[in-house]
């Protein structure tokens, strides 16, 4: 507080943007109704290899997505861990339209935490499909 009683804002948080490319390495599907139509509760488990903008392998992701809605293009809730040099990031959120034919939709998920140099990380991850089995992840870290 200042002498007049007004609050002062702390120093602004520094944002850091990391752009990575993820290539799907493994994926398994666990349908509720094997051989049947998509259903609430269907689950997908996956792992991707991560590359920096120069094409160097820098880490991997591992995660699960569970279908929560099959109507209107579908919706799934995903929990993903990004393993990066110096620590890990945890990310969670919804993906809409995953049952619509064509390339998977873009999505934004929340960074819920991290370890190592990403301890107490917050922010978001924006994902765009750029080729079959390949996504661009724009990680906006806010500390």
Explain this structure to me?
The two termini are 23 Å apart. The radius of gyration is 18 Å and the shape is globular. It contains no helices and eight strands. 0% of the residues lie in helices and 59% in strands. The chain has strands at residues 15-30, 43-51, 57-69, 75-84, 87-96, 107-114, 122-131, 134-142. It has an eight-stranded antiparallel barrel. It is an all-beta fold and 143 residues long. Residues 1-9 have low confidence and may be disordered.
Largest β-sheet summary: 8 strands, antiparallel, barrel
**Outline:** globular
Supply the helix-strand structural class.
Answer: mainly beta
Distance between the termini: 23 Å
* Beta-strand fraction estimate: over 45%
N-to-C series of helices and strands: EEEEEEEE
Compute the number of strand runs. Answer: 8
Helical segment count: 0
Helical percentage: under 10%
Mean pLDDT: 91
Spatial arrangement of strands, main beta sheet: 1-2-3-4-5-6-7-8
Oligomer: single chain
Poorly predicted sequence stretches spanning 5 or more consecutive residues: 1-9
Radius of gyration: 18 Å
């Amino acid at each position: 507080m200042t002498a007049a009683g007004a609050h002062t804002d702390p120093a602004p948080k520094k944002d850091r943007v990391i752009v990575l490319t993820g290539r799907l390495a493994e994926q398994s599907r666990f349908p509720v109704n094997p051989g049947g139509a998509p259903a609430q509760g269907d689950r997908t488990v996956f792992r991707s290899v991560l590359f920096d903008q120069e094409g160097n392998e820098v880490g991997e992701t591992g995660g699960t997505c569970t279908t929560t809605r099959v109507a209107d293009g579908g919706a799934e809730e995903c929990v993903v861990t990004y393993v990066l040099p110096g620590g890990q990031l945890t990310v969670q959120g919804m993906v809409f339209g995953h049952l619509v034919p064509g390339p998977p939709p873009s999505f934004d998920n929340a960074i819920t935490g991290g370890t190592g140099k990403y301890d107490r990380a917050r922010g978001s991850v924006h994902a765009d499909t750029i080729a079959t089995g390949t996504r661009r992840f724009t990680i906006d870290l806010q500390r």
